[in-house]
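Annotated sample (chain length 200).
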Amino acid sequence: MPLPLAVLEDDHVALEPLQHDHIPGLEAAAADGELWNLWFTSAPAPGKMGQYVDKALAGHQAGLMLPFAVREKRSGEIVGTTRFYDYVDDPRRVAIGYTWYAKRWQKSHVNTACKRLLLKHAFETLGCVAVEFHTDHRNQDSQRAIERLGAVREGVLRNHKRRPDGSLRDTVCYSILDREWADVEKWLGLRLGRLIGTRP
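Output written by the structure step:
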């Protein structure tokens, strides 16, 4: 059964359930920094965004994921995308990933705001007991960003997935548990307050 659609929003960002109307905005976001050329991102190459959205929507219908387009509220722009994936009902767990943002919004308040909304929805609405994060072992920036959320490193799955170039990657796994969420939420609120003064 597909995860229920929901708009997740605060004063800074709105996570809108992904739809075909978002394609032009996502294409513009991916073009800012030519994100498809970065080995560690899942952003599709020019002309491939429609297929990317179709695949994400098929994953939603299969009950495996819930993809979002990310809108920065002050500018009104679609600045990237993120999603829930690998949803398991018992015990209820979900992963957060497939996340990328236009270059000008990277290292701004956007990612912290999005993660806080996603974690809140996972723990308080979906009733998850754990939320997972997965990243390439070569992507040190992503690992540091996940650790800044308060996630705990679980281990490494070797030769776990293929990168867009076909090479095999080791996947570093992190998690946050439901009993840790209250402290993580406070920390993310403090971090977001500091980042708001540095947004582009």
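Annotation: Residues 77 and 165 are 30 Å apart (CA to CA).
Annotation: Residues 109-125 form the longest helix (17 residues).
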